[in-house]
Amino acid sequence: MIEKGDAEAMKEADRLAPLVSFAVARRGGVSSNDYWDLATVLELSAIGNDWTLAARVLPRVLAAGKQPGGSRRLWTI
């Protein structure tokens, strides 16, 4: 939606961002060890221009991606 960038897509992104943020926070948010949760936090922080949070979560995303079952688990399905 963000890439599409038209008014309707941006309105939908604005509507969904708090819902996705709430859902990922319930799963642990920045404290999670799950790659996909952390990647979602990173993406939401970039969308929201929260570069402090992005800088804080990026090392955790990279570390989680290197763990067994990290981002590679998607490709083993």
Summarize the model shown.
The protein has 77 residues and is mainly α. The protein contains three helices and no strands.
Descriptive terms for the model:
mainly alpha, 77 residues, 3 helices
Give an overview of the whole structure.
The model has no long low-confidence stretch (mean pLDDT 86). The radius of gyration is 13 Å and the shape is elongated. The chain is built from 3 helices and no strands. The protein has 77 residues and is mainly α.
Radius of gyration: 13 Å
Secondary-structure element series: HHH
Fraction of helical residues: 55-70%
Question: What does the overall shape look like?
Answer: elongated
Q: Which stretches are low in confidence, meaning pLDDT under 50 for 5 or more residues running?
A: none
How far apart are the first and last residues' alpha carbons, in Å?
Answer: 26 Å
Give the rounded overall mean pLDDT.
86
Query: Would you tell me the structural class of the helices and strands?
Result: mainly alpha
The number of distinct β-strands equals 0
Give a quick account of the main beta sheet: strands, pairing sense, barrel closure: none
Tell me the strand percentage band: under 5%
* Count, helices: 3
List the helices and strands and how they pair.
Layout: H1 7-26, H2 35-47, H3 51-66
